[in-house]
Amino acid sequence: MLRARSACLFSGNVILKVYKLTMADRPGSTWHGERGEEWSSVQGLESILLSIQSLLSNNPYENEPGYDKAQTAEDNECKKCYVEKIRHENLRIAVIEPLESSLGILPDRRATVVAEQPSEDDDEDQLQNDDKPGIEQFIDFRKRRFLWYYESYIQMINTAETETSRKRKFRRMPFESQGNTMDGHFDYPELRRRLALLKERIICETQNWPFEGLGIKKQELSIASNLQCQYAQIVEDFKRQKNFAVDLNLVDANPFLWAFTYFGRPMSHLDGGIFKFKIYISPRFPDEQPRVFVETSLFHVRVSKEGVLCYFPRRTDEMRYHIEAIVAALEEESPPYDPRTTVNPGATKLFWGSPEDRKNYNRALRRSVERSAEWVSVYPLDHHIRKILT
């Protein structure tokens, strides 16, 4: 049970499944709770999560029964090996394998298939019956978070590769026994390959949404007209508020692909910048949430190196809340620390580092703001945007 707890860092539903398996099916593999520590019918999901959180540790070896004070030379060596294999297996089991399953990538790792896309007839049957396509819980969440944290996964692999050799077998711990072991071997190059394939598939899936959407629009299904109305309302609100920091358009009149241009407000850290985004909206919105990509190069704590924007809407079912959250993510100059937003590890390290680090972050951000004007000169703005500027 305790070895799996670190998986909570990547996938909550994985940890809960392992927790249930260990407690219910393998009672001999853990210790009996003292009075007051045992399961009670009044406990719920929140109390379980808090209990698991309290046991998360940089040194999970010491969480094992009887090893909380282990300090021998062998124990110290085991601690290091234990962390190494947990790190490898968390990435493989909690991050990679669930997404491979969701995307239809074959488990043998040698051949892949593209997840079958629903036909227009399927879309019509599902949407006209007011039954939204079934999206397994957490699949869309995993995909969005994967795009956010891809660079962190790659950095972790780059660091770990220097510490262990490929195909090296996992060391068995003293408390592991037959039927209760974490066996296997290290293969970070293979994990890197699988991560790259996942990123490619998720981006390909995202870029296919507008094409799916056009088919839905031709069928005059409700989701297309609803998004069209939401877009019109948002634009009208901006005009009424005289908000000239944002320009919003439908790409080729497609309600499933929005072009978003942000103009840095005067006296702000983005003053003078012009940044263009694409907002991809799924035909299964809001079950599948929009994915936002920055087209203009921007060094920012909320923008990954792949150009994926990290933001948190107050509500997920209306696009105006997404637009509001996108602007807030860009404009916030002194946000509270939130580990969920570590989508650009280099920028995050500078932003939350020393005062000198923060200065270097501000310089890098300012350079990208200045370059945004050069980017616009290479990729001219639309005519209506130029009218706003003049």
What does this structure look like?
The longest helix has 31 residues, at 73-103. Strand 1 (246-251) and strand 2 (254-263) form a beta hairpin. Helix 3 (73-103) runs parallel beside helix 6 (188-218). A four-stranded antiparallel β-sheet has the order 1-2-3-4. With 390 residues, it is an alpha+beta fold. It starts with 11 loop residues before the first helix and ends with a helix. Mean pLDDT is 82; it is low at 1-29, 110-120, 122-134 and 381-390. The radius of gyration is 24 Å and the shape is globular. The protein has eleven helices and four strands; from the N terminus they run H-H-H-H-H-H-H-E-E-E-E-H-H-H-H. Residues 1-95, 222-374 form the UBC core domain. Keywords: Ubl conjugation pathway.
Short description:
With 390 residues, the chain is of the alpha+beta class. It is built from eleven helices and four strands.
- Rg estimate, integer Å: 24 Å
Overall geometric form: globular
Main-sheet strand order equals: 1-2-3-4
Report the structural category.
alpha+beta
Q: What is the residue-mean pLDDT, rounded to a whole number?
A: 82
Largest sheet, described in full?
4 strands, antiparallel
SSE order, as H and E?
HHHHHHHEEEEHHHH
Which range does the strand content fall in? 5-15%
- H/I helix tally: 11
The parts where pLDDT drops under 50 for at least 5 residues are: 1-29, 110-120, 122-134, 381-390
Q: Report the strand count.
A: 4
Provide the helix percentage.
40-55%
- Terminal Cα span: 63 Å
Multimerization state: single chain
